[in-house]
Amino acid sequence: MIPRERVRMALRRIETDRVPYCEVGIDRALAEQIMGWGSGQNERANLEANTFAVEESKAVARRLALDNISFSLRAPTYADRHPGQHGRMFFGDGQIKSEKDIERILLPDPRNPELYREAEQFAKNKGDYSAWFVTRIGIFPAMLSLGLTTFSLALYDNRPFVEKVMDLYFEWTRVVAEHVCQLGFDAFVTTDDLAFKTQPFFAPQVFRDLVVPRCKRVAEKITIPWIWHTDGNVVPLLEDFISLGIAGLHPIEKGAMDIRRIKTEYGNRVCLLGNVDLNLLGAGTPEEVDREVRELIRDVAPGGGYIVTSGNSLAGYLKKENALALSQAVGKYGRYPIAL
Fold it and tell me: Smallest Cα–Cα separation from 141: which of 180, 175, 107?
C-alpha cells in the first residue's frame, strides 16, 4: 500500500496494512543531522514559510520511513520574535496593542495565484506520499499578535477589537483553504494552540461564541481531511472540534491529555495523531523510545484511527538516534493486526 492511501484510510479510522508514521513539521537543524546535509546548527527560524523543497522533503521522508511530507504557509504574526537554538523560534510580546495598530497587519493577498506557486509544485511532485498543507486557522495568530494579556483583557473590555483582528486572519485562511484544497494536497493542517497543559486558554463558552462560528466559515472551504494541531489540554473543547468536522486531532500532548482515554471515548469519531513524548525524544535513549512507541501502538492503534507522530514536531534539539528509533519502532510494531 502506498503511503498516501495508508494515511487516507487511517484518517477515516480504517485499519490498513500498518500504522502510518507522519510528522506535521521537521526542523531543518535535525534534518541536516539525519541526512548528513550539514552541522545541524542551521538557525532558520521562520515558522511562516516553507522549510524544504519537495525533493528534500521526500528524501527526509524516505530516510525516516514517513508516510507524509508537509508544506507550510502561514499568515505573518505581529509579535516579537526570539530565535533559539537549532532553528527554534519563540514568540514574545504582541505588537497589536490597540485598534489603531490593526492597520499594521499586512497579510499576503490570498487571491493572488503567485502565493500558491510553490505549494502547487510541491503537491504536484508529491509522488506516493500524503502531502499536508500546514497553516493556521486564525485564532492563534490573532492571540500572538495581541499578546495573551492584551487578548485576554480585551475579550472583556473591547471585544470588537479582538474580533477585528481575528476576522482578518480567519478570512485570510478561508480564502487560502479554497485555493489550496484544489492543488492536490491530501490534508489541511491548522496549527492553532488553544490550551495550557491544565486547561484551555479561555472558557468553552467563549470558544463557542468567538471561535467556532469563524471556524465554520473556514470549514466550508476545506474539502480535504482537516487535522487540527493544538498543544495542551483541550478535552473541554473536543465535542466542538468534532462538530466542526475535523478528521484528525494532533498531538494529544503527553502530560496534558490521556491518549488512551481519548481513544476509548472519541476514537470512533476522530483519528488520533501523536503522543510520542518530546522529552523522551530529546533526553531519553533509543530503547526508551522503542518501548514508548510499542506501547502506544499496542494501546491506541487497534481498530484503526491512529497515526504515530512525535508529541509536537521533530524539533532541532531532539537526538538524531531517537528520531531514527521512533521511525524504526513504527516499522517493527505497526503491522495490522496489532499483536503485541
Answer: 107
- Mean pLDDT, the chain, as a whole number? 95
Residue among 253, 256, 317 nearest 89 (CA): 317
User: Cα–Cα distance between 93 and 150 in angstroms, integer?
Assistant: 9
Confidence of residue 90 (pLDDT cuts 50, 70, 90): confident
Domain count, the chain: 1
What distance in Å separates the CA atoms of residue 212 and residue 216, rounded to the nearest whole number?
6
- What integer is the mean pLDDT of 277-300? 98
- With respect to residue 340, please indicate whether it lies within any of the assigned structural domains: no
- 180 lies in some domain: yes
- CATH number at 309 reads 3.20.20.210
Among 154, 141, 150, which residue's Cα sits nearest to residue 191?
141
* CA separation, residue 56 to residues 10, 68, 69, 194 (Å): 25, 13, 10, 31
Nearest alpha-carbon partner for 129 in 7, 35, 10: 7
Going by pLDDT thresholds of 50, 70 and 90, the confidence category of residue 65 is very high
Cα 36 to Cα 22, 183, 319, distances in angstroms: 21, 32, 14
Alpha helices by DSSP H, 130-285: 139-146, 148-157, 159-180, 204-206, 212-219, 238-244, 259-266, 278-283
Residue 188 in domain: yes
Q: 41 lies in which domain range?
A: 3-333
What's the average model confidence in pLDDT over 211-218? 98
- Residue 57 clears pLDDT 90, i.e. is over it: yes
Res 292: pLDDT:
98
